[in-house]
Amino acid sequence: MSGRGFRGHRKVRRTVPKMRDLHTGIFTDGSCPQNPGLGGWGWVHVVNNRIIDSDSGAQPATTNNRMELWAIYAALLALSPDTAATIYSDSQLAVNTVSVWARGWSRQPWFTENGTERKNLDIVVPLYRLSLARPRVIYRWVRGHAGIYWNEYADGLAGGRRQPSPRIQREAGGMSSLGSVAAEVPRP
Predict the structure, then answer these.
(1) How many domains are contained in the chain?
(2) What is the pLDDT of residues 137-183, one digit of tens each?
(3) Domain that holds residue 38
(4) 38 found inside a domain
(5) What are the C-alpha distances in Å from 142 to residues 2, 44, 53, 146, 168?
(6) What is the CATH number of the domain that holds 38?
């Protein structure tokens, strides 16, 4: 039975690279040690282990989840609408929010079944809208602190940055946060 898999099928050699061998993509991370408190975010875009672009920044009085979402938002801001890319995050919440849940939430409109407003809508709504404008971007979860070099690099950017990013202030209209977007969220 050697060399055979389930039900007599031959074992297929794995062609997908192991996560720790990722050399191309956009890696994002958020950090907020006090949670809530001063938080940081960072992202790095690499192709064949060469840094193409990166950015990082911080926000006062925030949470880790917000920083994870913000890192993806900031990375998307840097991409042109026609760019094909894979964004990797070690936050399942952030990946699922942008790639799965927000679509359903936008139809409900943005409220839970019992009528309460979903958390972090001031970042989720613009993040979802930006993701719709970047249709060639896909989102993948990676395990944090598992030896994935570029994920660890993004973690270092997020943990080491404690001031607003000049790029985000410029591209997001001078805002260091998206608090004013909350007014756009439809009410039931």
Answers:
(1) 1
(2) 999 999 888 888 899 999 999 988 655 566 655 555 544 444 333 33
(3) 22-184
(4) yes
(5) 32, 15, 20, 8, 25
(6) 3.30.420.10
Residues forming the active site: 29-30, 68, 90, 145, 155
Q: Is a pLDDT exceeding 60 seen at residue 109?
A: yes
The shares of helix, strand and coil residues in the chain, as percent rounded to the nearest 5, are 40, 25, 40
| In-domain check, residue 4 | no
Quote the CA–CA distance of 115 and 113 in Å, as a whole number.
Answer: 6
Q: Scanning the structure block, which residue is given the tokens 């202030």?
A: 169
pTM of the model as a whole: 0.77
148 assigned to some structural domain: yes
Phi then psi for 7, rounded to 5 degrees?
Answer: 55, 35
Q: Give exposure, 84-115, as e/b (b: 16+ Cβ within 10 Å).
A: ebebbbbbeebbebbbeebeebeeeebbeeee
